[in-house]
Amino acid sequence: EVFLPEETRGAAPVDFLQQLPSYQSALRRRATGGTQERRAAPQGPAGLLAAEGHRPQQEGDEVTARPAREYPLTIAEKRRLRDCQQADIKYLSGWKQWKRTSSKSLKKVLSELKELSSYLELWRHDIHSIEGKFGTGIQSYFSFLRFLVLLNFIIFILMFSLVTLPSIISKYGMFNSSFAKIPPKNIEPHCTVYEPSGNKGLVYFYTYLKDLLSGTGFLEVTVLFYGYYTIDAEWIGIHKYNLPLAYLLATFAYLALSLIWIIKRSVGGFKQNLVHNEDPFQSYCNKVFAGWDFCITDPNAARLKHRSLQYELQVNLEEERLKRKEADRTMKEKLCIYFLRIFINIIVIAVLSGCFYSIYRATVFSQENSNVSIRHDGISNTNFQANLLVQYLPSMVITLANFIAPQIFSFLIRFEDYSPAFEIRLTLMRCVFVRLANIGVLLFSLWSQISYCATDKCNACGYNYELYPCWESEVGQEMYKLMIFDFIIILAVFLFVDFPRKLLVTHCSCKPVQWCGLQEFGISDNVLEIIYGQTICWIGTFFSPLLPAIATIKYFIIFYIKKISLIHTRKPAARPIRASSSNFFFLVVLLIGLVLAFIPLGISIAHIPSSKACGPFRNFNTSWAVVPHTIDGFPTRLRQVLYGIASEAFAVPFFMVICLVMFYFIALAGAHKRVVEQLREQLVMVRFDPLFCTPKI
């Protein structure tokens, strides 16, 4: 038996661990002789059977016993254990027998319902097939895509049932319903003029195509956009329906639903991520002894997994080498590295600034020229392409920036001398920032045009009523065009890039073509694509209530596009990422996109004056003004309570209590982390130090 030196044993967390409740309980059991009874009990399956057989007498208050399938026994021993449990039921009272039987029946019914619901799960067979052929890393992407389909579908049901359906019912007089339009008060007449650019007279096919792609024309006056919902109050029978309040509450509801669902899904991934973030020794052991993915059945995927494990081990060794190299650097070398990183970050900031300025100029140019062309009654075939190009100019510039900037970042990161794992994370975070910040710059450009007023008439309305008589619909059209163009780009890359490349690699034996090979199926890049589209959906739903339906259809089609692309036209990435960490990373980036969506929506609802010519909030200064207006109609006591909750006298103590609770949980998490570290040290010591060893009997 090997013993460690005395000073090493003294460093073990003995004193702390001996204060744990489990240790104290063990001492008490030893004092009462309970330990001797357990030592005398037979070990292995026989001991389990004996203990389980006497459980009803020893624990009379226990209603249910553990199922036999939960014990590490053979089938024959489990059958004997089950017979023992059934024979011991006669020792229970009638009430406890009925309770145990009903509990078993309920568990069986719930298990069967859960099994039945798994067959109704969307794309269950397809995702299992992908997991079997390409591993859990790629399967996590398709599971994430399924989650977004379900999320957008539920958001669509929410907006349709609370906003769109009541408007349709009241406008067509269904179910003995009626509606009222209250003309705005104390508003200048020129602010209430809104003439949608609907098609009049003979309309050519390309005009319909332009309207379908840009959201103008006949689509502008449909339920797709904000300007359609101009009803102030509805009556279905004798019940009044407040559409402005329902519109605002539906917006808060889908944002809260998205936040809660994302946080709920990310909790499991966060726990798994903590488990995998171990010390280097455990990382090596996990890769060597538990790194194989037993879901893989395809030989090519198996060879890819071999290369992946080899690559991960090489990365770990490279990181260890870089740590040693970093520890051996002189002060001069450190200063050179820091100056180089500062210089590269300045280049990154310059690239971002160029992207943002290009988007701003493209948006301003598109808005000015699009509004000029829309004023004409028609558009000739000659100007059709030019007009469509002008309207889609911001979307094209954003797509170009999303393609060029990541390539520059991937090139510059090589000179910053980071570890391979940190290089990947930093590049991904820069790409996330580019994609999501581009949407923010587009909205800022739109708001700068909407808020620009040079005349007194414009100041009376609070926004640029000449160019944007219904500015919410204009923003909705921009979000609609971004979503449509994003889908067109994904489909075009699949049809005109991946398929020709696959044909060239398959049928052409030229060395340059074979050297290029097939395009890799990058999980992170594909995830950033759909998160970018989901952020657009979150922002645009307030301005276009049926945009989640378009997003649902879009992601539904993208699933099959990506599946065909993965199986037939692309190859899995040579550097795959772990499924647990990837799921957590996907949800974190999605949460960042949701937080970004809160900012423009909050500004639009609470700060920018609402349009006075369209929409449900045309009688209010801002969209948020409907909330205090509704509260003013409540009884006096309830109104005082609500205003008290919204006052500083309640907010400050509430904030302090929340801070105290947060500090408590932070301290508790730190204590748990310290306990885990000390228990891990004990596991290392238990093999060598006799103090931690179990006494032999």
From TrEMBL:
Stretches assigned to the TMC domain: 470-580
One Pfam family here: TMC
The keyword ATP-binding appears for this protein: no
Annotated transmembrane regions: 147-169, 245-263, 338-360, 392-415, 427-447, 479-497, 584-608, 650-671
Compartment annotation: Membrane
Chain segments carrying region Disordered: 27-65
Gene Ontology, cellular component aspect: plasma membrane
Top-level lineage group: Eukaryota
Broad class of where this protein is predominantly found: membrane
Membrane topology according to the record: Multi-pass membrane protein
Family stated for the protein in its record: Belongs to the TMC family.
Protein name as annotated: Transmembrane channel-like protein
Organism: Cepphus grylle (Black guillemot)
